[in-house]
């Protein structure tokens, strides 16, 4: 037993009476309270106590009817195998879940690193854009300054040519008038 004492069970051959079954139920209830078994959810203490009680019921039924007892033993063994199988499946599923979570966290870390790299690359490209925009502004300003200088030079030359043309026209008129006056 749990308290360190030894428990000796003596097999009783007379069939179990209704009173024996009620005592067995009371013993089960007392032991559940004594060992502080959980009322709901998974509890190994409760499972062990119910298993012991079921074994006692099988023993009592086997005394009355060995065939029924053997059938109950098969049912008990099958139920235990199913429980063990479900536990193994649960453990496998839990392990799979942990592996998937770790994989997802690793993938998340990789995605975060990729995001940081892309953000850094974006900042570098934005800086390049600013440099290129500065160059474009400089080229446009230089082009505009050159256009202003070229336009001024062109206008000055056009004004000089107009003035020269006017002077030549005036000279030609004056020479033509002189020539007409000499005749």
Describe the protein.
The chain is mainly alpha-helical. The protein is 85% helix and 0% strand. The protein has three helices and no strands. The chain has helices spanning 18-34, 44-64, 66-182. Helix 1 runs antiparallel to helix 2. The longest helix has 117 residues, at 66-182. It is rod-shaped, with a radius of gyration of 54 Å. The protein starts with 17 loop residues before the first helix and ends with a helix. The model has no long low-confidence stretch (mean pLDDT 88).
What is the secondary structure topology, with strand pairs?
Layout: H1 18-34, H2 44-64, H3 66-182
Helix pairs in contact: 1-2, 2-3
Task: List the keywords.
183 residues, mainly alpha, 3 helices, rod-shaped
Sheet with most strands: none
The overall strand count is 0
Secondary-structure-based class equals mainly alpha
Number of helices: 3
Classify the beta-strand content into a percent band. under 5%
- Radius of gyration using CA atoms only: 54 Å
What percent of the residues sit in helical stretches (DSSP H or I)? over 70%
**Terminal Cα span:** 159 Å
Order of H and E elements: HHH
Mean pLDDT: 88
Shape: rod-shaped
Uncertain regions spanning at least 5 consecutive residues = none
Short description:
By secondary structure, this protein is mainly alpha-helical. It has 3 helices and no strands. The chain starts with 17 loop residues before the first helix and ends with a helix.
């Amino acid at each position: 037993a749990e308290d360190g004492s030894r428990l000796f069970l003596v097999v009783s051959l007379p069939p179990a009476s209704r009173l024996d079954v009620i005592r067995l139920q009371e013993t089960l209830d007392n032991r559940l309270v004594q060992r502080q078994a959980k009322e709901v959810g998974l509890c190994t203490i409760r499972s062990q106590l119910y298993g012991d009680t079921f074994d006692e019921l099988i023993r009592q039924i086997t005394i009355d009817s060995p065939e029924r007892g053997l059938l109950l033993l098969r049912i008990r063994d099958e139920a235990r195998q199913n429980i063990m199988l479900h536990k193994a499946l649960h453990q496998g599923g839990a392990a799979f879940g942990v592996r998937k979570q770790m994989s997802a966290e690793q993938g998340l870390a990789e995605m975060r690193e990729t995001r940081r790299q892309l953000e850094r690359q974006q900042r570098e490209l934005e800086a390049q854009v600013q440099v290129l925009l500065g160059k474009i502004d400089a080229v446009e300003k230089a082009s505009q300054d050159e256009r202003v200088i070229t336009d001024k030079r062109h206008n000055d030359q056009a004004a000089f040519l107009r003035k020269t043309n006017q002077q030549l026209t005036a000279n030609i008129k004056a020479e033509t008038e002189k020539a007409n006056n000499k005749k």
